[in-house]
Amino acid sequence: MQTDTKGRSGGIAQLFRRRDTRFWERAVAVLLMVASAVLVGVHVPKHIAVSPIDEYMYIDYVAKVSSQGVVRTGEGVSEFARAYLACHNVRNVGGWPETHCNPQSIADPNGFPNRGITSADIYTPAYFAITRVLAQPFVMAGVDLVSAARLTGMFWLALAAVALFYALRRLLIPMMLSASLSLLMVGSSAAFWSNTFISTDAPAMAAGAVALLLALRTAEHRNAVWWLAGAAVLAALLKLQLLLPFAAVAVFFMLQRLSAVRGRPRPVSSFFRDRLVLITVGGVLAAVVAQFVWMVVRSSIAVGDAGALVASASFTPSALADELFRFIPALAEGALDPASTGGGAIIPVGVLTLLVAGGLIGLWGSSRGLSTESNLAVSTILVATVSAPVLAVVSAVLTGQYIALVPRYGLSLLPFALACAGLLFTERRAMRIPFLVVAVLCYCLVLTIPQ
Question: Which pTM value belongs to this model?
Fold first, then answer.
């Protein structure tokens, strides 16, 4: 009788602890959403110039998507976008003098980048349509279209932060450390460039965080693999580079399966019969097919030559080797060198760069072979290392020119790197408060980045 009472009281105490934990998790999730909204809300009104990362082309796509659906290869950029560029200049790289902001100059497309021809035709309308829908409430409230579209970055950033936080909690990383790592992602140079301007990189961190969360859920509930496969296709339709975290998940499940069948008879055949591996890999392949279909559609509706915004570089073996180290450790750098962004970007970029390299290599080196921790680190390192040269080769074959990739193309892998860092520091209780202090400091510094 006494034992039963103790058992019941222990069960009740455990139930209250679970409820208490869920309450604080929800509270942290809300705070991360608020932090995302504040970061974007602070910076967007300060933006005067256009981002040099093709925002001019994206402004054109957002303006057109509600009326014509897609922009076509060879299509001219609208006068609306040309006027915005001419009268607002380009951040960090200079641009047009004030005298260029006149009807005569705006009317002449030849005076604009790429002779006034769009370069955004390579993208499906998915990101721009979502942006236009999310921007509509801001437009109805009196915000101009460009600022309204920029404000939608808060939704992608909030999704990234909350998904990463819950993924870290599924990995049993302590709540304070999970919150700190998620806040470090929100308060980053990458978030400034990707989520406070109109950018196809806006969903990148969200894609990585959602892929990680779905992968962990799939490991517990195998039927969730269909959600993972569907998310991979959607991510690729937003932007091809967003497929990288799903490729990392596929490699992770392969390594997990290899660990499970190691030592058994006929391990190879068992490995390839695994439903989880087959559907995950199938989702990645379906995403590649979806992008191929878009390329066919894009080619069929073209109205002219695409032109070239950037001069082609020499496609040499050394250039290809350089691509191997394009993403690690610089994937959190953002669009430009932090020194040129402003003092508020330097420390956050430095902190994240250390966490990316240290988290991935440290977790791999400190974990036993084919453990879950080792498999997560190895799959991320492998995809980050191999994907850049593969993307460079594919781009060179398809376009006929080689253009060196930039670290921000690997941004969708940042949540995986932060998860590895979290696992590495989980047992270091003394580091939890310092992590939180550094995360808050970095967030505040990014808020100070000037226009």
Answer: 0.92
425 is written with which tokens? Answer: 């520091």
The single residue listed with the structure tokens 């050394």 is 318
Cβ neighbourhood burial of 107 (10 Å; 0-12, 13-18, 19+): exposed
Rounded Cα gap, residues 313 and 325, in angstroms: 18
Alpha-carbon span 145 to 135, nearest angstrom = 7
Q: Structure tokens of 91?
A: 């951040």
Other CB atoms within 10 A of residue 123 CB: 21
- d(Cα 122, Cα 133) in Å, to the nearest integer? 21
The predicted-structure confidence for 335-389, as pLDDT tens digits, reads as follows 888 988 888 999 999 999 999 999 999 999 998 888 899 999 999 999 999 999 8
- Note if the bond before 329 is cis, omega within 30 degrees: yes
Residue 224 neighbours by CB under 8 Å, 6+ apart: 214, 217, 218
User: At 129, phi and psi to the nearest 5?
Assistant: -65, -45
CA distance 202 to 146: 15
What count of other Cβ atoms lies within 10 Å of the Cβ of residue 185? 31
Per DSSP, the three-state class of 100 is: helix
Other Cβ atoms less than 10 A from the Cβ of 282: the count is 14
Give the pair of three-digit tokens for residue 263.
Answer: 């030592």
**What's the rounded Cα separation, in Å, for the pair 283 and 277?**
10
| C-alpha span between 218 and 226 (Å, rounded) | 9
Rounded Cα distance between 430 and 449, Å, is: 31
Cβ–Cβ under 8 Å, residues 58 and 200: yes
329 Cβ neighbours under 8 A, 6+ residues apart: 353, 354, 356, 357
Q: How far apart are CA 349 and CA 37, in angstroms?
A: 21
Evaluated on CA atoms 411, 412, 417, 419, the torsion sign reads positive
